[in-house]
Amino acid sequence: MNDRNLVRGLVLLAIALTFGLASLRYPIGEFSRAGPGLFPLLVSSLLFLIGLITVVRSRFVERVPLNFNMKNIALVLASLAGFAVISEHLNMILGIVFMVFCAAFAGSTYSIVRNAKVAAVLIAIAFAFQKLLGVNLSLY
User: Fold this and answer.
1) d(CA 130, CA 139)
2) Residue 2 pLDDT > 80, yes or no?
3) 43-84: per-residue pLDDT in tens?
4) Most-buried pick from 69, 85, 86, 120 (CB within 10 A)?
């Protein structure tokens, strides 16, 4: 089973089933009066559909070998852990900047300008969540 497309589809199916089955513990409600379980059920259903299409498609396209690069996995995990620690103890803006610049080392090219643009967009999204949606984020 050394096929990246097949593994990608199976992982999507597993994530969709996990969240979809967990959402059934909450009241679903109706579309006119949605319960807390409706949104995660709909999103996981769409994710399940995408996973199913990916698995079926993997049978008709050329196999792509699945390679694990432990250095890249460690860099991404370290960037997520650093984001959590910095956001908790300092502020989220610094956490976002750290996460973007650290995770970018896992890529094939490194561009400070591109990383700054990505960080700026993520910070803008965080501000939108805080100001427009009222989400309690410690941005500064």
Assistant:
1) 8
2) no
3) 999 999 999 999 999 999 988 888 888 999 999 999 999 999
4) 86
Report DSSP letters for 61-125, one per residue: S--------HHHHHHHHHHHHHHHHHHHHT-HHHHHHHHHHHHGGGSSS--HHHHHHHHHHHHHH
* Number of Cα atoms under 13 Å in the Cβ half of residue 72: 8
pTM: 0.67
Residue 25 is given by DSSP the state T
Enumerate residues 6+ apart whose C-beta is below 8 A from 105. Answer: 75
Q: Let me know: does 101 contact 40? Beta carbons within 8 Å.
A: no
User: Of the candidates 51, 54, 24, 59, which has an alpha carbon nearest to the alpha carbon of residue 39?
Assistant: 24
Residue 78: closest CA among 46, 51, 102: 102
Structure confidence by residue, pLDDT tens digits, 8-19 = 999 999 999 999
* 17 exposure class (CB count in 10 Å sphere: 0-12, 13-18, 19+): middle
User: φ and ψ at 118, to 5 degrees?
Assistant: -65, -45
